[in-house]
């Protein structure tokens, strides 16, 4: 049978496919998580690398801003390379080497990372750089002498004391040129409030070095200013600015915004020309990975092999585990299939080895097999009983007919009466079998109508009065009130008649059989009570089985066909009622019929 099942529909194959899909999804999810995590790590690494690159560029730009050439930059380059783990190379614009942390002869990266030019920081903005794009550390001729610093620092301390006396706490900071200025305590911002006694302006007065440099700057910028029609309207000052900013770029001009932008452009270009001799020449900065890669993620062939191997191992373990579980699941199913394929007469059972769903199925299969075995035994017994029921009267009829035909016996009235009795027995068995067949097929026809219970019981008693008198058994009726039934009167007389006949056969002479009727709520209860021999407790559950007899020694003629009580049960079920039996050996039996109550017919009925 298993060979006929398509491969894709087998339980084992479907379980393996399912486990494979689960394993693939698990591996894919794990790979996605690893990629996402690695991507985040790469971003963080790249962010750190970018921060390191900015620090390298800032430090080299500061070096260029404070040195007129690159002569001594090699030490700075090596220190930066050791700190960041990056290769750092400086070259002239024509790629002539200036300094390189890599061994001589090492090829440069394809392109420069940035241009180091403190006067034009287009690709880099130093912290605190001015809008002009010049590195604030490039001060050149504006750097104060030692004596000027002492003098102006004294002015700064004097102003700080003045601020303190007026309730404003400040801190002294210095620009790259050495000029001091005041900031708010624990801040880099200038005080938002300047007390009037402290606004003397002395701290913003140019020192001799600054005055000389400003004069030179004014002269340098004049041709440009004249071209823009500004002339001597632009005045340069050294007013206090934010921390780190160069104070020598504070042109003041009273004009429109366009002229102000022109004046700033002229001053910036003049200042670049003024500072050019004091800063290092423009250089190209090249950055490489060095000995420590900036990106730690490496999908080399070895790592790819590890990922593929791990994924394959996970898949193999998953498939193996699923195959083991599937085999354990399929084994009892195969046992069930093999048992079901055996011939029905063998009634094969399967072992119950588990307590899960498969075990429950095995128990149900065994129960079904047991019920089928019992039904088969009942069927065989029924066929045997029917054959016996029909064989006995037929044998009698055939025997008497043969001896009559041979002239051994004359066909006298007594013989004819005996043959008629045998025919009645046959007719009764056949009628009972037909009633049971109709009940089993659901074709038992009923013609319900309102029936008075007292009249029903009297009719049944009258029909069995002769048999009761012959058996010297008293037959009584007892009706409480006037209960009515909606039932088929013919079928109800048949059911009660079977019970009365059964009671008369089992009640000895001098006994009593009582038919009673009463209302119990919405139901009508009919009872047939006898004072006969009763039924043993172990036999009581079988009284409604077909061909069952309490006394096996009774003959078919005197003991009935064994179909009366089953017919009673089917007739009551067809009416929507029930029948029950209760008995005590030596005391008698009680058969109780419970049916839905009815109502009397209307006046026009």
List the keywords.
single chain, 605 residues, Helix Hairpins, five-stranded mixed beta sheet, four-stranded antiparallel beta sheet, 49% helix
Structural class: alpha+beta
Strand order of the largest sheet: 10-12-13-15-14
Overall pLDDT: 79
The number of domains: 4
Q: How many strands, what sense, and barrel or not for the largest sheet?
A: 5 strands, mixed
Describe this structure as you would to a colleague.
It is rod-shaped and about 170 Å long. Helix 4 packs across helix 5 and helix 6 (301-340) runs parallel beside helix 7. Strand 14 (578-584) and strand 15 (588-596) form a beta hairpin. The longest helix is centred in the first third of the chain and has 56 residues, at 11-66. It is of the alpha+beta class. It has four domains: 1-115 and 282-341, no CATH class; 140-278, no CATH class; 357-424, Signal transduction histidine kinase, dimerisation/phosphotransfer (DHp) domain (Helix Hairpins); 446-596, Heat Shock Protein 90 (2-Layer Sandwich), CATH 3.30.565.10. 49% of the residues lie in helices and 13% in strands. It contains 13 helices and 15 strands. The strands form five sheets. Strands 10-12-13-15-14 form a five-stranded mixed sheet. A four-stranded antiparallel sheet has the order 2-1-8-3, with helices on one face. It has a two-stranded antiparallel ribbon with strand order 4-5.
């Amino acid at each position: 049978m298993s060979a006929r099942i398509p491969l894709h529909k087998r339980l084992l194959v479907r379980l393996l496919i399912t486990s494979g899909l689960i394993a693939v999804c698990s591996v894919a999810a794990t790979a996605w998580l690893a990629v996402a995590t690695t991507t985040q790590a790469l971003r963080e690494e790249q962010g750190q690398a970018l921060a390191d690159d900015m620090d390298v560029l800032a430090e080299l730009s500061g070096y260029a801003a404070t040195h007129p050439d690159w002569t001594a930059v090699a030490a700075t380059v090596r220190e930066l390379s050791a700190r960041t783990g990056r290769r750092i190379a400086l070259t002239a614009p024509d790629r002539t080497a200036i300094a390189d942390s890599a061994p001589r002869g090492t090829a440069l990266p394809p392109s420069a990372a940035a241009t180091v030019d403190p006067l034009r920081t287009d690709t880099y903005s130093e912290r605190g750089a001015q809008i002009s794009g010049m590195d604030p550390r490039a001060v050149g001729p504006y750097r104060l002498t030692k004596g000027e610093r002492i003098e102006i620092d004294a002015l700064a301390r004097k102003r700080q004391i003045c601020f303190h006396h007026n309730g404003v706490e400040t801190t002294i900071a210095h620009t790259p040129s050495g000029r001091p200025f005041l900031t708010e305590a624990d801040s880099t911002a200038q005080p938002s409030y300047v007390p009037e006694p402290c606004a003397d302006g002395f701290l913003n007065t140019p020192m001799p070095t600054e005055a000389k440099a400003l004069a030179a700057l004014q002269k340098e910028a004049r041709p440009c200013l004249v071209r823009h029609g500004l002339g001597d309207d632009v005045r340069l000052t050294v007013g206090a600015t934010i921390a780190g900013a160069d104070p020598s770029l504070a042109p003041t001009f009273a004009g429109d915004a366009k002229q102000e932008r022109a004046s700033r452009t002229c001053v910036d270009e003049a200042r670049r020309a003024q500072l050019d001799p004091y800063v290092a020449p423009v250089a190209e900065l090249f950055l490489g990975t060095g000995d420590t890669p900036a990106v730690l993620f490496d999908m080399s062939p070895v790592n790819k092999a590890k990922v593929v191997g791990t994924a394959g191992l996970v898949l193999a373990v998953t498939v193996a585990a699923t195959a083991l579980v599937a085999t354990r699941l399929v084994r009892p199913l195969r046992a069930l299939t093999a048992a079901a394929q055996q011939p029905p007469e063998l009634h094969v059972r399967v072992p119950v080895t588990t307590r899960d769903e498969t075990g429950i199925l095995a128990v149900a299969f065994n129960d079904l097999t047991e019920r089928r075995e019992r039904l088969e035994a009942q069927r065989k017994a029924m066929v045997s009983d029917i054959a016996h029921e029909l064989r006995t009267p037929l044998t009698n009829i055939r025997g008497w007919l043969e001896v009559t035909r041979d002239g051994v016996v004359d066909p006298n009235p007594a013989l004819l009466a005996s043959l008629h009795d045998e025919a009645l027995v046959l007719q009764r068995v056949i009628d009972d079998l037909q009633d049971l067949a109709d009940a089993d097929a659901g074709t038992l026809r009923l013609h319900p109508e309102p029936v008075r219970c007292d009249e029903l019981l009297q009719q049944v008693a009258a029909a069995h009065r002769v048999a009761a008198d012959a058996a010297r058994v008293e037959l009584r009726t007892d009706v409480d009130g006037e209960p009515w039934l909606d039932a088929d009167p013919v079928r109800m007389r048949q059911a009660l008649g079977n019970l009365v006949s059964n009671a008369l056969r089992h009640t000895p002479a001098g006994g009593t059989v009582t038919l009673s009727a009463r209302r119990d709520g919405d139901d009508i209860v009919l009872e047939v009570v006898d004072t006969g021999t009763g039924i043993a407790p172990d036999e009581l559950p079988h009284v409604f089985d077909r061909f069952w007899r309490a006394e096996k020694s009774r003959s078919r003629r005197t003991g009935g066909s064994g179909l009366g009580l089953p017919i009673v049960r089917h007739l009551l079920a067809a009416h929507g009622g029930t029948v029950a039996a209760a008995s005590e050996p030596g005391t008698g039996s009680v058969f109780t019929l419970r049916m839905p109550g009815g109502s009397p017919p209307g006046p026009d009925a």
